[in-house]
Structures are given as C-alpha cells and as structure tokens.
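Tutorial, part two.
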Amino acid sequence: MEANAPEYIEVIMIIPLTPLRFLRYSSQQFPGRTAVVCGDQRFTYAQFSDRTARQAGALRSLGLQPGERVAFLGANCHRLLEGYYGVPEAGGVLLPLNIRLAPQELAYILNDSEASVLFFEEQFTPLVESFRRELKSVRSFIPLDFTPGASWMVQQNYEDLLATATPYRTDVMQVDENSLAELFYTSGTSANPKGVMLTHRNIYLHALNVAITFHTTSESVELHTIPLFHANGWGVAHSLTYVGGKHVMIRKFETTEVFRLIEREGAQSLSVVPAMATALVNCPERPKFNLKSLQRMSIGGAASSPTLVREVEEKLGCACYSGYGLTETAPVLTTARMKAGLDWQGQLRYEKLASTGHAVPGVEVRVVDPEGNDVPRDGKSIGEIVARSDGVMEGYWKQPEATAEVMRGGWFHTGDMATMDENGYVLIVDRKKDIIVSGGENISSLEVEKALLAHPGIYEVAVIPVPDDRWGEVPRALVVMKPSVNLTENEVLEFCRGRLTHYKCPRSVEFLETLPRTGTGKVLKKELRKKYWSGTENIRPEFATKK
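Running the prediction step on this input gives:
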C-alpha cells in the first residue's frame, strides 16, 4: 500500500429485525391505501401510522418505561391492532388479554406480568372494577371507547389521548431485536397460565414466513375472525401490514356479519377454528350473500375433519385447508396445502387437506419417540411433534424450569402426538393427555371425532375418556346435533362401528346443547372430563378436580 493511500474502514450495517419496520414500509409505499376497516371507520396506512405514533407518544407521556407491559382488554378492534405497533414503538411490551377469562384469571395475569397500563372497553368496566384493587403494578387504567366515569381511570379516553399526544417514532436502528415485544398467556396443564415471550426477531421472521406461505400481497384483504388476543391473530396483524394489505376487523364472530363483511369489503381470506367453519357452512343465511371474493379459509386451533373441509369448499366456494401452530411458536408451524408434484384426488384430497400439514418456510418439524429419535415416515408410527423455527418463543415469563422442560435438546416439544408420511405431512392423532388408554390399547379421540363428524346429523362432537371398572377407561362421545335432527345413542354408536374397529368406538353417547370452549374456540375437554373423573382414584388422576 502506498504511503499516502487512504485507509478504508469496513462498516457493517446491521438493521434490527423488528415488526416496527413493517408499518414504516407500508406507510411510505402505500400511504393512501386502506389499511384498516373497523365498523364504519376506515384508516389509510398514513393514518394508521400516525395513530400508532400518537399512541406511543401518549404512553410515553404517561411515564411508560422501556420493557414495561401494556395490557389491552377488548374485542377485535382497530385500537388493539394499533397497539401491536404503538406499544413497541413506545418501547413497551404488548399484552393482549383473553376477554373470556374470569376476573381472578385476569388479575393473576396482570400481577404476574407486572403490567403498568391497562386499556379496556366500556363493556368490561364492571369486570375491571371487580379486581382492580388486587392489582399491584397497574398505574394507568385507560378507557378505550367511552368517557371516563370514575376517579381511578385516566381522565382522557383513548381518542382524546391520541388527539393531544405528540407523535413518537423510535429509531429502529436502536431496537434490540432480541428484546421482548409481546407477551401472551396460555393455559396449560399447570394451575396457573404461562406467559409466552415473543421477541421482535420472533415476530419479524414469523411474519415473513407467513406472508411467503400464503402469498400475501398489497392486494390481499383479510377478515380478522381470529381474536387478536390470540398469538398475533395467527400472524396476520404483522404479515398483512408488512405488504400493505387491508385488515378488516370484526368485533365478534357472527356468521351473517362474516358474510356481510366478505361481500362488502371483498375479503379474500380468513382463518377459523373448526367450530367457526361449522357455523359458517350451516348458516341458513349464507345463500343471500355474494362470497365470490373469498379465496381461502384456513382452519386451525383444533383438529379438523375431511367432512368439514369438503363442506367448506362446496358451500363457500373457496380453497380450504388446515394448519397448525401454538402460542409458543408465534404461532404458525404447518399448513396442509398440497405441495407441487402431488396429486390428491377424491376422498384422499380432503383427508390430506384436513391433516396437520407440512412445515412452512423457516420451520423444521420432526416426530420423535420418547428417546428423541425420529419415528419412521410411514404415516403410522406415532411420536411427539417437536419444532425448531424462527418463531419459537424466547421462553415462559418467569418460569425457567417450565421453559427448560419444553425446550429440551434445542427443540420445542409441543405435547402433540402425531405421525409423519413420506412426503413430510404430519397428522396429529391426539394431545398426550387426550390419548385414551383402554385395556392397554391407545385410542385417538381425534380419530373417533372425525369418524362421527361424517354423520350428516352431527353438528360437533367431543370424545373423552370416562372411568370403566374393566378397561380402566373407555371413550364417551359428547354430541351436539344439527337443528331439527333427533338421533339416538344407538344410531350414533352403530354409525361409528361401521367406520372404526369396535374397541375404538364410544361405549356411550351423551347429547349436549353446546360444548364449552376457550376464548379462541377450542373445546375445553379438561372441563368435560372433570364431570366424570372428579373424586375418582382411577388411572387418570390428572382429570380429577384438584382439592
């Protein structure tokens, strides 16, 4: 090198992976496009960005410190969607609350998370009033959609706070991508719910994987049928914003309102749990609406059935397939879409579309035996699903032992038992705790449920184990019939025996008006089992009511 030659210093620019960059991009590239539709309100991406910046400014003016938790208690609404960006913009951690939880459960979560701020809707004021004195860390109670009426509330509601706030936008280059961005609480087998920690990096990469998987573009229109308090509304809150698509909010799942919004807004896609899909295909008002814009319905949250997939495609005229994920994985892990090169025909097609599916980009999925070895990819050998992906959580909030238990060997252990075929398609046969062990034989409750759901008169069904003196436990079917249908126990049993080997079939049937569900539509089998196992000392003591 010559004596007077200039010295060159290598500069490496590392841009943090944060979902804040999604809204930055869309507001710059699509400022005039409709970002959010919520009731009669419409916001462009420029307006959406301004409102989130004002939310961030309002939170900072209230003294929010970096890393503090900000909770939302409300239905699906543009305000909560704004919180997905405004809270991390302010340096906080978003904590969406399940609106169906009991007061003591909400109080536990707010105290365990040490939340500093609670936004809440007017309909939940009595609920908040019932437990607010138990809260140890909440400093600010902010009304979302009403005028403050009590001294313990912040004396400006959400809209007033935004109107008077100075917009704040953080420098994304200063964001630590491994810092916590969102905290979701999920109920497990333990006595108390666990907080799932998702980082900026988790959310950013998961959103990219989802957008690639579902070919999301700026022309995409998604109806938010999944509550936003559930794992990013299955990732849509971020993946759709990332490309400048249109969010259509629905406060409460009602079949006719879903159809009305599909027709009015040209919704192209929506995600549902099986109970929602069942309600849509059986809604008598459906033929009154123009649903031609609808291209895709993804079913997740619980196992679907080939019968339901077929009914969705035939009656709603859109593609339908299952998917799988958990709160701990941000959540999407798999989709049951048909891979290139495969040719599913007839009943096989519906069976495959209703399966758990194959790993989406950015995800590795294995099915392993108790020693951690891969089971044969023969579609028959059963093992536990383990996953490794960009979206796998940082861990459980303040629960290092529980985190270590599910993250053994660098893989997240889901607790779901499944098979894998030669093409990499996974099929969940049951949760570990839901496998029915009858006389030494393992029975999949999901297999039995799918067989029963093929009956034209059955609306929905849950199969659970009940105590039996001879076999230890046997399957029992809890059946909800379709309107104007009258079935007998013997008719249901005979239908099942025509499709499954007899030892797998229920020994008894109970007819119910409805099945109890979580806030995201999953059947509460734990609650159903308590009725039969409470006070027993049989082989499934985990089902008994805890004293």
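The chain has a mean pLDDT of 92. In part three we will examine how such features are distributed along the chain.
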